[in-house]
């Protein structure tokens, strides 16, 4: 994130269209194929405090989900069981 | 045409597709199964079932398309059609509610959260996992697919057999519910929330 996005001096405190903005921000965060998404994101975050806060919170949640959610190890016999069953139906 | 489709792959090709395109997803498949059922044996059954079906119906898999999404769709259907029916757990009281009310695409987007990014980052994996696990299965599912597994909205729409607009709105609702859970964890565990300032 670039430094000029961090200073909040210029941002408006009310978002003009929360529904539209947040939906767009979430789509961008989720990797939807939106033309010029990086430019749109940059300008929204620079101009609007609610958008800025929403984006960073959603981004943080996405990151903790991805990185911290406990992963369950695949039981060692599962692959062998599957292969055995496949041999039986071949 | 269906005859041609049916005979599409040779034994050798089938084995190659199965080994190289299907089996590498077993970790994700097992985790998905586990997060749907919360039970190791049920998760194993679901995954095994899924792979057997995948092998049986391998001719309907198009090479070059997303094998992981194809497998997830089979697992999710097995979960709904087989697991939910035989399990004594009522198909979750919330399910009906989710299907009727929550499928609406009108979502209220608003500033909701006094949850802080800092306190989120302090949380442990178990807390995050528990919050996710506490959500109704349809909400849990969209978060698993999107945030844990990185599927696109288009892929999720195909896996879940719902329109993209519904994917988006359900995901938004799921995240709001998750934020509520995380916020109450944060408060209970003494992490900072804005309310305390
Ligand atoms: Zn805004």
UniProtKB/TrEMBL annotation, chain A:
Protein name: Mycothiol system anti-sigma-R factor
Native source organism of the sequence: Belliella buryatensis
From TrEMBL, chain B:
Domain RNA polymerase sigma factor 70 region 4 type: 127-176
Domain RNA polymerase sigma-70 region residues, every copy: 25-88
UniProt keyword Transcription regulation present: yes
UniProt-listed InterPro entries: RNA_pol_sigma-70-like (IPR039425), RNA_pol_sigma-70_dom (IPR014284), RNA_pol_sigma70_r2 (IPR007627), RNA_pol_sigma70_r4_t2 (IPR013249), RNA_pol_sigma_r2 (IPR013325), RNA_pol_sigma_r3/r4-like (IPR013324), WH-like_DNA-bd_sf (IPR036388)
Gene Ontology MF terms in the entry: DNA binding; sigma factor activity
Transcription regulation keyword on record: yes
Family: Belongs to the sigma-70 factor family. ECF subfamily.
Keyword line: Sigma factor, Transcription, Transcription regulation
GO terms under biological process: DNA-templated transcription initiation
Pfam families noted in UniProt: Sigma70_r2, Sigma70_r4_2
Protein name as catalogued: RNA polymerase, sigma subunit, ECF family
Domain of life: Bacteria
């Amino acid at each position: 994130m670039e430094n000029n996005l961090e200073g909040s001096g210029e941002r408006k405190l009310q978002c003009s269209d929360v529904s539209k903005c947040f939906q767009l921000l979430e789509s961008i965060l989720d990797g939807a194929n939106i033309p010029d998404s990086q430019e749109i994101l940059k300008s929204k975050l620079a101009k609007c405090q609610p958008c800025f806060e929403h984006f960073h919170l959603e981004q943080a949640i996405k990151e903790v989900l991805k990185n911290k959610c406990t992963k369950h190890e695949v039981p060692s016999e599962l692959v062998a069981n599957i292969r055995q069953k496949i041999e039986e139906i071949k | 045409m269906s005859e041609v489709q049916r005979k599409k792959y040779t034994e050798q090709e089938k084995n190659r597709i199965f080994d190289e395109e299907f089996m590498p997803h077993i970790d994700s498949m097992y985790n998905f199964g586990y997060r749907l059922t919360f039970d190791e044996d049920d998760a194993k059954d679901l995954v095994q079932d899924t792979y057997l079906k995948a092998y049986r119906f391998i001719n309907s898999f198009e090479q070059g398309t997303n094998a992981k999404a194809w497998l997830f769709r089979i697992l999710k259907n097995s979960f709904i059609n087989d697991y939910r029916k035989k399990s004594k757990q009522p198909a979750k009281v919330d399910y009906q509610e989710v299907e009727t009310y929550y499928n609406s695409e009108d979502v209220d987007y608003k500033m909701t959260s006094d949850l802080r990014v800092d306190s989120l980052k302090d949380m442990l994996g178990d807390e995050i996992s528990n919050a996710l696990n506490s959500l109704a299965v349809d909400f849990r599912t969209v978060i698993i697919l999107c945030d844990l597994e990185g599927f696109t909205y288009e892929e999720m729409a195909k896996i879940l057999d719902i329109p993209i607009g519904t994917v988006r709105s359900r995901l938004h609702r799921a995240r709001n519910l998750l934020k509520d859970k995380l916020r109450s964890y944060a408060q209970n565990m003494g992490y900072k929330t804005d309310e305390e300032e």
